[in-house]
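In response to reviewer comment 3 from the previous cycle, which asked for concrete evidence that the modeling workflow produces usable outputs, we include below a single protein chain processed end to end. The sequence was submitted unchanged, and the resulting structure tokens are shown without manual editing.
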Amino acid sequence: MTLKQFLEKLLDEDQAVEPSSLSQLSGLSPSDIGLVSTIWEKYGTNRRVDLLTSMVGMAEEDVELNFTTVLKLALRDDASDVRRTAILGLWECEERSLLSILIDLIQKDPSEEVRVAVALGLRKFVDLAESNKLLPNDSNRLRECLMNVINSPTESLNVQRRAIEALSPFSDGFIKELIQWAYQHENPEMRESAVYAMGYNADPDWIPIITREFSNSNPAMRYEAVCASGRMGQEIVIPQLVALLKDDDLQVRLSTITALGSIGGPSAKRVLDNCLNLEDESVVDAAQAALEVTEAYEDPLSFEYKV
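The workflow returned the following structure tokens.
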């Protein structure tokens, strides 16, 4: 079946799509993507979202598959759900051309959900900039763009707080002041984003704030604090994390186990080993996964590659 025939077959939305057949859309040439673009808009919105979702799932299971060209095509889609799905699907893409597209979208896209997704997607480029893997001009454009979003009087708080999260890997004093400002904000979700940002900023000075939030009455804040402690990787927080294994909120308990796995070390391993004897199956499964993470960190050569 030719690519054109396959694309036209997909027009029949009553017919289920066999995910494996979508491999035909992997690694498309410029002429192929031109063909896709002429037919893409004929699919219904739900069909386009389903196709992208299936492609992203396949690429996660098979690293040989590359649907980047189709996902980038979908960034120009008229439907915000399609654009948002494409942005989320490009979470691993570090192409310079994508950075320019995302900067344009966060400045101009009419959908708040899309702009939120863009802000989340820009954090990987901040990571690259902080690691000196981005051109200085691109790094400056990225920083300026996100700061304009944060300072915009018309932008929603939801997009602004995600922009602060995106900026968090930058280690300079100005970004730390920005995180501190967000932590003192009157809006609880902005404060949650500040704690999230502390984890990615990874300055040890944040530890007292993060551990203080372990006892916050809001489970969402406790969750963010626990996740931040895991990203910080400091063993000093382990005794306080142990208490959260009895938290009333299941997500807090599970995130605590994940954090212990990320921190690693003998103390964390002992705690995780004890979790294997608990009755809650979800907790036991999380503890097993966390132990595998700690062991992989300790002996990366022991990782088994499956062919």
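DSSP finds 17 helices and no strands in the chain. We consider this sufficient to address the reviewer's concern, and the full set will be provided in the supplementary archive.
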